[in-house]
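RECORD TYPE: inverse folding
INPUT: structure tokens
STRUCTURE:
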């Protein structure tokens, strides 16, 4: 097999997808290990603390790698959300709803799909996501505010989570 630097574009894209799925699987394995040892409440607290640290790091690396300006507002966030590792692990759409606002809509969520296949209730990820999404958005532009439109344990119907981001002047 070729070295990574020798892979074709098609194989590099395939590898990116594998990396994203592996990252999501590792996150899930870590969480399950924490839950087994410390219980759900403590695992959720640890997960939230982890996302509070990781989300801004991810945002800053995306900004740096793709030349997004500090304080780049909704256009910068729109691009950055599409470049997150999460965007490769789960199918999502980022929709501009106004000049100063956009929505992130999760079309497919690997975690929730797996739980639904097993007949389990949706994982209550809102407790962690209300930390991670705002931290990511604020790292792109501190003036961006994040609103949860739907995220388990909220009722989401057959869908998944939805978030609105607005820049207040």
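DESIGNED SEQUENCE:
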């Amino acid at each position: 097999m070729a070295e990574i630097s020798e892979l074709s574009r098609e194989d590099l894209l395939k590898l990116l997808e594998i990396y994203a799925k592996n990252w999501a699987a590792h996150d899930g394995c870590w969480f399950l290990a924490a839950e087994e040892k410390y219980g759900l409440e403590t695992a959720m607290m640890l997960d939230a603390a982890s996302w509070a640290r990781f989300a801004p790091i991810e945002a800053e690396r995306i900004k740096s790698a793709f030349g997004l300006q500090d304080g780049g507002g909704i256009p910068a966030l729109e691009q950055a959300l599409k470049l997150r590792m999460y965007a490769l692990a789960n199918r999502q759409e980022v929709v501009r709803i106004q000049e100063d606002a956009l929505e992130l809509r999760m079309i497919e969520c690997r975690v929730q799909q797996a739980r639904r296949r097993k007949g389990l209730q949706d994982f209550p990820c809102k407790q962690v996501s209300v930390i991670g999404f705002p931290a990511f958005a604020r790292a792109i532009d501190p003036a961006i505010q994040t609103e949860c439109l739907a995220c388990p344990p909220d009722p989401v119907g057959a869908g998944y989570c939805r978030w609105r981001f607005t820049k207040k002047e």
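NOTES: The helical segments are 9-38, 40-66, 73-83, 85-89, 110-117, 126-140.
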